[in-house]
Amino acid sequence: MADAASSPAVRAKERYVMRPPIKLLIVAATIAVFNLGGGGARAEPVVNQADAATSYLDVLDLHGAPQTPTDRSFNIFFDAGSWHGYSLPVAGDLATGFSGPFVHSLGNGQWIGARFAQVALRDATNNQNIALNPVDSHAAPGYLVRQFSGPDLTVRETFFFADSWHALVRIELTATTAQDVDLSVAGRVMPQQQAGLVKDGDTVAQTFANSNSKLTTRLHADGTPTYRVTLSGADYRIALDQPLHLKPNQTATVFVEQTLVYDVHADQPTPVDVASAWTQNRARWDNYLKSVTSSHLAGIPDEVARRVSVKAMLTLLGNWRAPRGDLHHDGVVPSYSNPDFNGFWSWDSWKHAAALAQFAPQLARDQMRAMFDYQAADGMVPDCIYLDRAGNNWRDTKPPLAVWATLEIYRATGDKAFLAEMYDKLVRYHRWWFTARDHDHDGLAEYGSTDGSKVAAKWESGMDNGVRFDAISMLKNGEGAWSMDQASADLNAYLYKEKLDLAQVAAILGKTQDHAQWLKEAATMKTVVQTRMFDKTRGYFFDIKLGSGDPVRVYGSEGWTALWAGVATPDQAKSVIRIMLDPNKFATFMPFPTLAADDPHFSPIKGYWRGPVWLDQAYFGVEALRRYGYDRQADAMARRLVLNAKGLTQQAPVYENYDPLTGQGYQSANFSWSAASYLLLLQKRTDDHHAR
């Protein structure tokens, strides 16, 4: 990066003069001290035993540097609901600092900074620059860390988020001899953002065309030091006005803060307390990581199961976004790696919440609330919502898993108040399906749309281009309500389970009449699904055409949803499981593709919902086996899902879907519901999953 203070005039202006040294935050010990010896390929950190995060270093490769403002070719670190993210520089980059920030809330997301928190030191006694050589670089749960060495001193930079607004870099300088040094911190914005870079006293401010957002960068030090800010093209530098005095074998600490405000006219974030921010960050992450200790899958070492669970956790928290604009609660986006996924989706949200309940229950609750903030008067919940509500998709909703997710939160927390808060909303959403999506009023619902379009009806299924929908027609139910001309096996299995789950919620809340009514409705629906949607000649659950009742004989993942929901008879389940375990259909190298491998439409790489493995459906498949007592087979299929997904047990991100024949990941990297599914797959087993 170009030195903003490299011109002769600036050098002359900043020439050292004798000044009293600044006293900064002095601490006797630090959280992690890197072992500089050992001679290995990578110096491992010597860590405080209380810091659980250091057991899971570099689960994801978080190195990268943006080549363009929209570069999403590498992984980015977000946390605490932040809308701005950062990365470690590329391997071999000798300079201090971090890549970023990437601002997810600016357009569809773009890099506005190339480098942040680049430290420069100069010997205050002879005015000579101090060379810093890289020692190590790591990504740990909740922070990024880089260490450098210089003559008789070490410098460590720890990047973390204090909250959703504030990113901090803790710069720790430890000298073996007394030294006075001049310290400055530099950064570089992306060239396209140069026009918005301004000096605001001792702060650097960055604004953006056609946006009310603002990014500010400042230093924090003990006492009341003053700073100099210089700008040079796309570069900025903030320098302490007085030298920093380093005492032997003690650590002096300076913080760099970057704050992103989404709307300067509406948002007023509380100033960050840098003195307590790191301790609070570690406490939060230690609490998250407690849940990982129970990760287990028969036949896989627990340390592997735990590391995959941590990767899933990092993925979900990396996609966590705090309330901004028209998003009123925290939630999780599907994937920051895809520019099309800059909002919250309902089906995704239910799966996210079920997994988040294990380690971040407040975020799980808010994920549910975020979608129900927009529940319509008739009970419908939109497909997706955005920072600007004008983009919300009301053409369809998504499959009904909201009650399941709410119960998962209750099971993890015992929060009866949350059940009471959600109950009426869940009832209205459930009833909406039979009001707006049961064309012939036979008790079986259909996927559909509000505008009568086939494409939105397919979106509503969540399986956008599923082969079973190739020949659908649309039927009008009423104003703004249309159905496909077929009732879907998965939809009605979900709705059956919702009735059972609503009965359980009603019982917990003491609503005895509601409890009895839900059980009665579930029993009626169970008979209808068993008799009308199971094809005895093929031994599988299929969608059925309205009117004729003819099965749509496509072997897809929807066929085992009835088992996951517990609606199948034991004999029906046995028949379906035989097909699920057929290596020519679903028991592939990476098992449970969304379309049978022997179907002529099977397209495992580019098929989207016509052959790839989607982890939610695969997870439901594993649970379907368990529900009917096939635990050994469930374990075997689950092991394949973990061990045969390429890179999952190494540093590769979790992908949107996978090739069932090779295990190669495709579509969006860092995909939240895949991560959620792996967390659920690896959670500690209970006896509650078997059919009664």
Topology (SSEs and partners):
Layout (H helix, E strand, L loop, with lengths): L7 H6 L11 E3 L4 E3 L10 E3 L36 E4 L11 E5 L6 E2 L1 E11 L4 E3 L2 E8 L2 E8 L2 E9 L4 E10 L3 E11 L7 E4 L2 E5 L6 E7 L6 E6 L2 E6 L3 E3 L4 E11 L12 H17 L11 H17 L1 E2 L9 E2 L10 E3 H11 L4 H12 L11 E3 L15 H12 L2 H21 L11 E2 L4 H8 L12 E5 L2 E4 L1 E2 L1 H20 L3 H21 L1 E2 L4 E2 L1 E3 L5 E2 L8 H5 L4 H11 L34 H13 L3 H13 L11 E4 L6 E5 L2 H10 L11
Antiparallel strand pairs: 1-20, 2-3, 4-5, 5-6, 7-8, 7-13, 9-10, 10-11, 11-12, 12-20, 13-18, 13-19, 14-15, 15-16, 16-20, 17-18, 21-22, 23-24, 25-27, 26-27, 28-31, 29-30, 31-32, 33-34
Helix pairs in contact: 3-15, 4-5, 4-6, 4-15, 5-6, 6-7, 6-9, 7-9, 9-10, 13-14, 13-15
Give the helix tally. 15
CA radius of gyration is 28 Å
Strand-residue fraction? 15-25%
Going by CATH, the architecture of the largest domain would be Alpha/alpha barrel
Characterize the main sheet: 9 strands, antiparallel
Number of strands: 34
CATH class of the largest domain: Mainly Alpha
Shape: elongated
Provide the residue-averaged pLDDT.
Answer: 92
State the low-pLDDT regions, or none: 1-50, 687-692
Question: Share of helix among residues?
Answer: 25-40%
Q: Kindly report how far apart the N and C termini lie.
A: 65 Å
| Total domains | 2
Name the structural class: alpha+beta
